[in-house]
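Page 37, continued from 36.
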């Protein structure tokens, strides 16, 4: 039979009549088995009946009882063992040299073993442990009792230890494994063949990781190179604190299961994309913590920002994958506003600027001269633009950066405009340096362009809503003229501009535009007529000759939304249509000589 005892830095005991050292958490089990009493000794010693020291706690060696009789035990020292099998070999040399210095025997596979040998560290190949060659093109390497028995055996369970001893299996104390690069493989361009994807589904790796994580009381598992230094300090080093080591093993076990969970979710997502249709019956979204935020929408709310590791997000771009070049750390509200601004501006094909406040666009303009587009976007609503987010769909050069830095509010021509964030797909070196001079707090973000696209998930209490992003563009919409008056070519262009903008405004949403610029918008009102009033008020005198877009149909027209717009000077209106009173809107527009179009689609945004 065989028993294993583990060394701790704080407590060791030996049996009165036997030269056996046991860890404090094995005392009761050992007493019951041997029928002996124990007494405390100085850590690091084992004494015989006469009190002579038999040995000290050598680094990474643990005593194993090879045989026990009523009179004596035969004691040997077992070297601690680490099994390493990696796809990501970052910092591997640091790890293996640290393990070797502490006396660990290192077991490894294939390319990992070759890398370890190259680092000058002794390594035993896994086939020398299993006595079985790698087979099936590498599909079977570590799926063997000599590996999993050594990982899963509970050291305090005498039946477990007898079982592995009977099969000449030695314990494995550390498992360092990461998995095949499945996500990178299946999202590559060009798309790999289905068979290539299947071959990159790791089997042996997750099996070892899960086994080691389950046996966290005795085995440490590490899946991330970022944890190697802490591993060497808290678990591997001689004299490591037992309590700290135990807590580290638990934390690494959590990380290991999460690692496998994220990996499996990506495999599942990929397979469903190949064999399924419609919403997946079950779905797991792999998220990685990117930043712990100071607070949420309000200071009393805790918050964090996670990046989505789903396959569908691999090449999509947007705010989540942006580079922060400058400024204060991003806040919860910053992320929401920056995302709203950037998705809106990236929805426009022409060079454009969008300014957002509280996720609603308050300034939008399109011009071949991006600097002029910026000026027009600010002038749409300078009060709301102050403290907002400025987004561009073209790189920012030095001239534009100077204008952003020095531009004065059109309200008084004195107050320098203040912004929380500037976001663009790029910056010239001179433009970036100039923009940094505006404020040490201005957040300057660079992001891959992303118009609304992909899958949209939104949480409700106890569940999630899933829908396709609202990616419908005006070019895909058939606008039908239902009035007597017909639109000019310029009005049609303005209709498309306003219609593209209105889908980014919170419902009930109204936008008024002219000549490729937003004049005013009404958002978030419980009734549509109030949104119309707000948009007209914001447009002021420029409303004459403008166009108006409504995200949904007009329930009333006479003395309501449509007539108010006509009386204010709006010359063309577009709405989805579909109301029981659609004819009232037609009749009202005909009375005032206003163009009325229907789109057949709506753009609710809640």
């Amino acid at each position: 039979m065989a028993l294993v005892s583990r060394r701790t830095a704080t407590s060791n005991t030996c049996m009165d009549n036997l030269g056996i050292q046991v860890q404090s958490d094995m005392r009761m089990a050992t007493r019951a088995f041997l029928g002996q009493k124990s007494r405390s000794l100085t850590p690091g010693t084992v004494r015989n009946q006469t009190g002579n020291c038999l040995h000290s706690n050598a680094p990474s060696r643990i005593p194993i009882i090879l045989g026990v009789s009523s009179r004596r035990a035969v004691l040997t020292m077992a070297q601690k063992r680490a099994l390493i099998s990696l796809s990501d070999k970052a910092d591997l040399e640091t790890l293996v040299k640290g393990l070797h210095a502490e006396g660990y025997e290192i077991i490894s596979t294939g390319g990992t073993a070759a890398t370890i040998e190259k680092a000058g560290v002794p390594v035993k190949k896994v086939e020398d442990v299993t006595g079985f060659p790698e087979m099936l093109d590498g599909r079977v390497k570590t799926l063997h009792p000599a590996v999993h028995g050594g990982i899963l055996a509970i050291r305090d369970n005498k039946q477990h230890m007898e079982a592995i001893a009977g099969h000449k299996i030695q314990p494995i104390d550390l498992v360092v494994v990461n998995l095949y690069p499945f996500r990178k493989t299946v999202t590559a361009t060009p798309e790999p063949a289905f068979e290539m994807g299947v071959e990159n589904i790791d089997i042996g790796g997750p099996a070892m990781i899960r086994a080691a994580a389950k046996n966290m009381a005795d085995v440490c598992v590490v899946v991330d190179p970022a944890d190697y230094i802490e591993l060497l300090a808290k678990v591997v080093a001689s004299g490591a604190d037992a309590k700290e080591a135990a807590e580290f093993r638990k934390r690494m076990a959590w990380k290991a299961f999460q690692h496998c969970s994220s990996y499996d979710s990506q495999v599942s997502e990929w397979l469903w994309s190949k064999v399924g249709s419609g919403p997946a019956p079950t779905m797991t979204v792999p998220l990685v913590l990117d930043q712990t935020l100071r607070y949420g929408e309000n200071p009393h709310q805790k918050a964090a920002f996670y990046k989505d590791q789903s396959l569908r997000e691999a090449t999509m771009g947007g705010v989540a994958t942006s580079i922060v070049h400058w400024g204060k750390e991003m806040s919860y509200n910053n992320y929401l506003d920056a995302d709203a601004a950037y998705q809106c501006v990236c929805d426009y094909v022409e060079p454009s600027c969008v300014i957002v406040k509280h996720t609603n666009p308050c300034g939008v303009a399109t011009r071949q001269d991006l600097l002029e587009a910026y000026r027009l976007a600010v002038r749409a609503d300078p009060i709301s633009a102050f403290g907002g987010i400025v987004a561009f769909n073209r790189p920012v050069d030095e001239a534009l950066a100077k204008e952003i830095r020095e531009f004065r509010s059109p309200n008084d021509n004195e107050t320098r405009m203040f912004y929380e964030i500037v976001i663009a797909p790029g910056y010239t070196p001179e433009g970036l340096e100039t923009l940094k001079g505006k404020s040490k707090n201005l957040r300057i973000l660079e992001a891959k362009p992303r118009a609304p696209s992909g899958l949209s998930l939104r949480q409700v209490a106890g569940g999630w809503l899933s829908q396709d992003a609202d990616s419908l563009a005006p070019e895909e919409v058939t606008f039908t003229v239902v009035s007597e008056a017909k639109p000019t070519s310029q009005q049609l262009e303005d209709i498309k501009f306003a219609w593209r903008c209105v889908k980014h405004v919170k419902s009930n949403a109204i936008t008024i535009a002219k000549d490729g610029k937003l004049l005013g918008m009404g958002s978030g009102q419980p009734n549509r007529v109030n949104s119309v009033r707000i948009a007209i008020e914001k447009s002021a005198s420029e409303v004459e000759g403008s166009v108006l877009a409504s995200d949904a149909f007009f329930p009333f027209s006479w003395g309501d939304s449509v007539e108010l717009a006509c009386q204010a000077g709006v010359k063309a209106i577009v709405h989805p249509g579909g109301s029981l009173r659609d004819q009232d809107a037609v009749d009202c527009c005909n009375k005032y000589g206003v163009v009325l179009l229907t789109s057949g689609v709506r753009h609710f945004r809640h």
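The first strand starts at residue 3 and ends at 4. Flag for discussion at group meeting. The radius of gyration is 34 Å.
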